Amino acid sequence: MGSKAKRSLAAPGSLVELLQQMISFDTVNRVNEGVPFVEGELAAHLEALAEGWGLQTARLPIAQNGSLDQAGFNLLVTHEVDQKFPWLLFDSHLDTVTVEGMTIDPFGALVEDGKIYGRGACDTKGTGACMLWALKSAVEAGGLQANIAILFSVDEEVSRIGVSAFVQHQLASLHWTPSAVIVGEPTTLQMITAHNGTVRWKIETQGRAAHSSDPSQGRSAITDMIKVIGVIEAEYIPKLTAEYPLVGTAQCSINMITGGSLVNVIPEFCTIEVDRRLVPGEDAESILPAVETVLQTLAEENPELNATQQEPHISLALPADGNQVLKARVGTILESFGFSSTAQGAKYGTHASDFAALGIPSLVLGPGDIDQAHRKDEYIALDQLESGMQVYQALMAQPGDYWSDGR
Fold it and tell me: Is 1's pLDDT higher than 50?
């Protein structure tokens, strides 16, 4: 499906209009379908708006499979007051999950009953709109004593190539490093200072194809996979004990399965996809070896069973011990708006862990309720949207050394 937005959109006159424009762009992540850069038209629109408001922009190309054109770019919007001032970085991703099964117009951006509806309204175009409008407003108000950057990143919902490219390559090409990072996700403006990570991978069983008229001539990969699932769910998952105060206990689940080619052919291959949630402090590299131990025991009992684990996709957890000054400062500002300053944890993952891995104090904060993310009638409440913008603007208005000097 193509974007629903016109390419000649006028500059929005309000925060709500800005979010409506952002929702109107179809940025459903299709990396798994071989469509790697759906965020381009929206990024170009935000680029034009930012430049029209006197902000600086930069396209940060992402190389994938040896090509810059296919993977696209992260968009960096900046306002540099003084080279001597520290930088505060805000991050919000532009892609969304699928619109399949939605009961509202996913790109209509309907405003009704104090809410704005549409795919991404909550997760997480709402945070991006608040960040950009807050920067526009802060610059217009004047007196900024910190340099501000907003990273509009790509491909958060699937493979996270956007943030990976930024922390591994693009950041080093800039003349500055942020003193702190605020990652925008729908937290109802509660501080998330710790969250889980993920290890996701595939396990494949290989059987032997044969005509279904004589199953004895083959070996069913599906039947073998049933045994694999059984042993993981009996011998691995129930024995997970790692826990962390803000996020609870480590989790694991098997959530996808594919296998077989034709109804009259004994299946030669079967694949499952496993989702393992890491709590802060767990070693991501230890997960597959632990599962392999269980699979080896199964193989000893079933010598002909052939089960192979594929390379995992790892997203790190965010521990709470690297952002104490940032937590205190943000908490003070939240209290000034009537919000709680109590640190919270999250069972999901965000970009904050990628920045924290570089030693940069990072936390997660944004308007909207995570319970509305990915839903068939996704929305964000307008009062949350306005409060989010005000909180972000207040963060931007602090002196740059406010985030790191321990005052």
Answer: no
Q: Where in the chain is the domain with CATH 3.40.630.10?
A: 15-195+317-403
Interatomic CA distance for residues 101 and 240, integer angstroms? 34
Place of tokens 């402090």: 281
Domain 197-315 classification at class level: alpha beta
Domain with CATH 3.30.70.360 in the chain: 197-315
Q: Comparing 3-12, 59-68, 176-185, 312-321, which segment has the lowest mean pLDDT?
A: 3-12
Q: Are strands 192-195 and 344-346 parallel, antiparallel or unpaired?
A: parallel
Burial of 321 (0-12, 13-18, 19+ CB in 10 A): exposed
Task: Compute CA distances 47 → 40, 57, 177, whole Å.
Answer: 10, 6, 22
Pairing of strands 379-381, 115-117: antiparallel
On the CB side of 215, how many CA atoms lie within 13 Å of its CA? 8
CATH code of the region 15-195+317-403? 3.40.630.10
86 vs 398: CA distance, rounded Å: 11
Ramachandran sector of residue 86 (left: φ over 0; alpha: ψ -120 to 50; beta: rest): beta
Yes or no: say if 90 and 392 are a contact pair by the CB < 8 Å rule: yes
Averaged pLDDT, 18-26: 98
CB 37 within 8 A of CB 64: no
Average pLDDT over residues 304-327: 94
Name the nearest CA neighbour of 64 among 128, 158, 204, 150.
158
